[in-house]
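ligand=magnesium ion
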Amino acid sequence: MKNIEKLQQPDNLLEVQSIKKYFPLENNSLFKKNSRFVKAVDGVSFVVKKGETLGIVGESGCGKSTMGRTILQLQTPTEGEVLFEGEDISKFNRKRLREIRKDIQIIFQDPFGSLNQRMTVGAMLSEIIHVHKIVPKNEVLKYVQKLLEDVGLNKEHYWRYPHEFSGGQRQRISIARALAVKPKLIICDEAVSALDVSVQAQVLNLLKKLKYKYNLTYIFISHDLSVVKHISDRVGVMYLGKVVELANKKAMYQDPKHPYTQALFSSIPDVTSVNKKERIILKGDVPSPLNIPKGCRFHTRCPAAENICREKEPDFRKIANEHYVSCHLV
Amino acid sequence: MMSRFFQNKLAVFGGIFTFLLIFIALFAPFIVPYDPTAQNYSMILQGPSAEHWFGTDEIGRDVLSRVIYGAQVSLQAGLISVGIALAIGVPIGLISGYYRGFWDEFIIMRITDAMLSFPPLVLALALAAVLGAGLENAMIAIGIVLTPNFIRLIRSEVIAHREREYVEAGKASGLKDWRIISKHILPNTMAPIMVQATLAIASAIISEASLSYLGLGTQPPTASWGAMLSAGQGYLATAPWIALFPGLFIFLTVISINLFGDGIRDMLDPKLK
Amino acid sequence: MENNQLVVKNLHVGFKHKKGFTTILNGVDFSVRKGETLCIVGESGCGKSLTSLSIMGLLPKMGQVSEGEILFDGQSLTEKTKTEMSKIRGNDISMIFQEPMTSLNPVHRVGKQIAEAIKLHQKVSKKEALNKAVEMLRLVGIPSPEERVYSYPHELSGGMRQRIMIAMALSCNPKLLIADEPTTALDVTIQAQILELMNSLKQEFNMSIIMITHDLGVVNEVADKVIVMYAGKVVEYSSVKSLFKEPLHPYTKGLIESIPKLDVEQKELPIIEGSVPNPNEMPKGCRFATRCPNAVKDCFSKLPPLISVNDNQEVSCWMYTENWNHMSGERWRDEEYREVAATR
Amino acid sequence: NSAENTSTDIGGVAANEATDKDVLVIGLDDDPPQLDPHRSSAAVDRQTFQSLYNKLLDIDENLEFVGELAKDWDISEDGLTYTFYLEEDVVFHDGTPFNAEAVKFNFDRMLDPSFSSPRASEVNLLEEIVIINDYEVDLVLSEPFAPFLSVLTDRAGMMVSPTAVEELGNDFANQPVGTGPYKFDSRVSQSKIELSRFEDYWDELPAFEKVEIRPFADSNVRVTNLVSGDLDMLNKIAFKDIEILSNDPNITLLEQDGIGFQGIHLNTTVEPFTQKEVRKAINLAIDREAITNVVFHGGAIPSVSPFPPISWAAPEFEQPNANVEEAKKLLEEAGVSDVSFTLKINPRPEEEQMAQMIQQMLSEIGMTMNIEMVEFGTMLDQLESGDFQAVRLGWSGRIDPDGNAYRFFYSNASNNYSNFANPTMDKLLDEARTTVDVEARKEIYEEISDLLWEESPYVFVYHEQDYKAMKNYVKGFRHIADQMIRTNSIYFE
Amino acid sequence: MKFILRRVGLMGAILFLVSVIIFSLVNVLPGDPATLILGQEATPEALESLREEMGLNQPLIIQYFEWVTGVLQGDFGHSIRDNTPVTTILVQKIPVTLQLTIMSFFIAIMIAVPVGIISATRKGTLWDYSSTLFALSGVSIPPFFLGILLIFVFAVTLGWLPPSGYVPLSEDFTRSLMLMILPAITIGIRLSAELTRMLRSSLLEVLQADFIRTGYAKGLLERGVVFGHAFRNALIPVITVSGLQMATFLGGAVITETIFAVPGIGQLVVTSILTRDFPVVQGAVMFMAFAVILINFMVDILYTVLDPRIKLAGGTK
Ligand SMILES: Nc1ncnc2c1ncn2[C@@H]1O[C@H](COP(=O)(O)OP(=O)(O)OP(=O)(O)O)[C@@H](O)[C@H]1O
Ligand SMILES: Nc1ncnc2c1ncn2[C@@H]1O[C@H](COP(=O)(O)OP(=O)(O)OP(=O)(O)O)[C@@H](O)[C@H]1O
Ligand SMILES: [Mg+2]
Ligand SMILES: [Mg+2]
């Protein structure tokens, strides 16, 4: 696959080049190599510019989280490169990785599972700050407390345990943890999905505010299209391990090109449209990432599929400025 | 969390009895009415009476005093053998579960499989026979026999936890592996380990008694409940108190520790929150 | 009023525990007409599921209806015995749950699970029941149903499992179907399929539906009537159109506004400050008072009644009463209330 | 006795019908490890051998020698040649005849170094076996050996079928063939051995169709089975049960002085027992009376020498009581204090009790004795290698006093675990062996007893008495000092 | 098929390790079998020649290798005490142990199932407390104590049952059962205690599951839900545990067998360890380990019957 934008552009913070992540199917055979794989991420490329927010949407199991983890090198990519500020971090050794992780952080979906239940908030945050020597020892407490206030908690929360917080507050703690090391890029993996709408709004506002305050760059993963629209500058749509459409927000939401994107957008039950809109109801279920259909991976559910779709995998083409799509029919 | 523990009356009973027992064991010399080894040949096989609440044994010793001293041995047997099992099992389980891979899959797990397919008492017996009779050796043998259970438990806990997001978050924050293992994973696996440990203490006490029954446990004249029981079982028809009281105490102790362990489990189980 | 399939009056539900009794539902009133779809919305933990479980008579062990009445076809459900309730459940009233993944017994074939419900309520043979199950699967749009009845739940996708649940619920032609967040766990494209299916089945079976959700978008799609719950109370009862056109209760307003909109660009989302107080710290008056931008002193101490504002809308808020002007004009915020409450 | 009555319905064997049944069920204290007498080393084996095999000679109630397979015998003047005249109609269970050839075969077998028979030590003075004719055989010794006849009343005198041995080789132990009144049927180890009447038995036919021998390691269980009627008779009962059983109206309890001795081996080559005063102090400090009363409930006799009162060699001097003062004085004079040592014992309740009593007795003379329980296998090993200070181990006894003394106290003898080396003792033992006159031997053994008391390489504690318990209907049992159950004379009434 | 091959391979590996462990353990045991066989009367020459004969003088590796070669050809060697082939001994013992195990299991299940169900469905009531106490009592009584107590009560005092001993089923059916009842209770009570606890907690967990609510929503009554939906699901962890417990119970039988004079494998192992009958110890332990592994293998197969989600592909969860 061709690289979609020229490399080494100075304002590119992150460049992902056709990364793949295949999970071998559980097989404990001693000698034989695996032949079946879950192709969770199957060749994804994009760039993230400094200071922007890239939204990623897609249905459950399409590989969003795996992609996020692979970028962070929490899972080593099966193939492809991840360039952060021009350096390929997928080739880094443990030590350098630990260092680079100061710059890339992640916030997880589950506000319960992503915090260590047995550590106070303060201990958890100070630990990270110690490890990366962000501030001198005697300033840690002050630094952490300031951080807590920044994310909308108060100083006293330093001494509390995670279970003493509500869901929204916990997510703020996760945000504080991500911010603690002064990262450049934060990957938000469904960071607000578990929250109630009213709390979700609070957290979204906070994320936006912090972005300007700390000059952050986000990759914002979610299945909620309205949330992604609210927060992102550009949006990518994933289907079965691939990005099928990538465009800036406006173009994407006003004029989606890929049949899947169109169907997805039409499926969202919307509060605002008083008249019920015409829906595109897709047939059937998402195929398993174990058996990705030949040709265009969407053809099994595509209302417009033609012969070519069944045979040939479409390229990821640029069809307009900053608008890429992977479909034969566009 | 504590309040949940205290709601469980049985657990509270278990806890109180366990602590009482520890107290008795610690202060045995100040509590006993008689020297537990003092023999009085004119007082053999006397039934319970005002002077000897639990009667006297076959060589005229005070059964109550021996039962009290026996608490020392039995608790030691329980605590130390479980301590040994923990000392070996926890690090191996942690490392094996965290790193997986060849050593875990093909060496450590297979050896624990092999050890687990031995009948535990047979293994303990063989080990004790190799090491020689005596309380210390019995404790080592029981400890070794208990170890694979702990390795398995801890390993499976670690495997469950290392996929959790808080561990990934720790990795993502650039923490070193050993720090994640010791500071994050270990404290979170404490609850099942604690529960397993209390249960193992109970079974270690019974195992010590069983080894003593086979002559491989405590050496005379030290009073251990198991040894008293095996010496006294011959007198079940004529002087039942010799075996009955230590038997009763083993029973009560094990039951208390089990209840206590159950209480801890309920207390720590997030599902029951 | 004989048009009403179900009437819930002043329902109080709570949980017994060592230290006493915590009331969660605090006087819930609503009714569902025959053939109507009622949606219940509200934040997590406000008591939506508890309401539906009370109707089904399936409250958890320590749960208890402490006050109020539930009338189904004019009969009081709260007074029925276990055996009587079991004849109604699955037959006259059916229920679909949120989690299609775990709501089916993993060790039995799906056909058997559907047939079990049929056999329980209709005097039919095993074989007939299974045939009926096949019919039901066809009805909910599962391809090759003759084979699928022999599948185990884990062999089916989430959407298919939810269809199985729907088939099971509909198998005895219930008069009332309660669906507790039936699509929350599903993907949007699958959710669209299911909502479509439910709409079409509703026509066919002519039943009443109570649909619980926290997604206002879903409400907009399916509801005739909506009740908005907050902390165990109904704060607004309205037709779906009026609700979105002109929400009355400050909570409803806040809720609708805090959802990111697809068609407008927002710099910042309007939010409702604070969070739901826990059951033991509820104000005596309006439960939303601690977060309400308009709250006045009396809001904290006086419980607003559910009043009809117009034909389509009822709301529980002092602002819509004549008293509002007489109530002392001073605004109170949560902190102040707490201070006062503490000195009491 | 209610237990008796109710148990009969369940037990399947009704006690009052016992006389109708044709099976004798004997309970043993352990599972016999061996059914080959020439390989056997465990005392319990011999109980089974008595039914399976005949010996050349036997002893009677008065410990006199009587003929068995040998109807008669002569001893040459020099005490070197023993001539045996054999019974003539004897056949082995496999039908082959018993004759002088067979006798020679048997002794050759025991002497064969590659067969490693434990019997070798008893018969290794045999120089030559001369077949005179089919039923007459000369056994020629290399030097006079007074105890020789007594050896032939036990395992060394048991005759196995040469044909069977040749056919079965090492498997003989699993299908033993002798000339005894009962022949081997089957065996389930740890469970039972079944024998059936040998219809071609040369002597009077035994009373039972079958004999069943069942092992019970636990003494309580053993007694319970007798009381409940599952057993007809019992070998060895725990001393604590003596009283209960003797009061049971349905049970006959027979008592017989034993021929063995019990006590403690002191290792004379390691501290603190290199000094004879220390050893003797122990000997003096022990209150044997207390032990026989408390542990054995009167079922044992205090002991000060290897020879029990029933033996003609028993010393005449009086049983000394415990003498703590003298023991202390002895230690003081020797200038030792703070003596401490470890006694190894077998893990059995009675052993533990006795050890603990001795421990207390020794503490009164300021000695610290630790107790270590060692299971038998390890104990034997440590005895052999000398890796011990004191070991509590006795000897089941032999008819001839030599069998109780020589092997233990002669320098470097096979069982001289104490490593006792005393020229006087060696001289006396040699003399006793080669002297044929009983009176003269008695005097020598008296001296030996004295010397052992003085030197105390071994602390004699008690002589065990043998108890056999049986249902009242069991008759004809001959309780002889060798403690054997001779099934050929037993019948039910 | 692949699964089975894999399991067989795994089984082989485990058995190999078991054999190494037991062989080394047995060989570091103090005490020399030759001394034990020949006893106190042995002469040094006899001992030496016996050691030679038994091959005890060879290096351990060679001894091990010869033993393994034999085992692979189905020859477990001969008892060094009386030369009986180990296989013959095992064949005698296996039916005994099998009978005891089956009867114990039967008793355990007869107790555990009703008690477990009652205490789970009546959680927090007196029923629940009593059955918890019962279950705990079962694990808390040392087996030898319970055994002797049972003999004392049922055989000696009441005289209802014979105290101890063994008769094969084929010889006298009723008496064989009668003799086995007390030992089977001794083992069974302990097993039932564990099973009751497991069944209770797994039932409690299953009863929380969403599909239970579905059952009620269909109109099932409690009975229908518990037996139709909860029980089978709850059984799955219980079966795992009983599989894992097998090792304990084969070995827990050691003491029970000794007390009740049941000539089973457990007793065989203990006496053989004490008499240093190495080939027998090795053979018997290998057999027990094999049995345990085999049972766990069958448990895995049983799983797939009980729980269709589990495939024999060898997933770890
Ligand atoms: N460690 C793993 N081993 C094997 N398969 C995996 C692993 N992690 C993820 N997968 C599979 O990869 C696919 C993509 O998973 P991923 O979690 O990335 O999806 P997602 O888009 O984040 O979904 P969701 O919206 O549900 O979070 C899924 O089919 C999943 O089952
Ligand atoms: N078994 C229980 N014991 C005690 N409290 C309970 C129990 N079940 C529910 N509750 C409480 O009752 C309240 C209402 O719960 P309910 O399940 O009805 O909420 P919900 O509106 O359905 O929320 P969600 O959207 O999360 O499903 C919650 O605050 C919850 O804490
Ligand atoms: Mg995800
Ligand atoms: Mg709910």
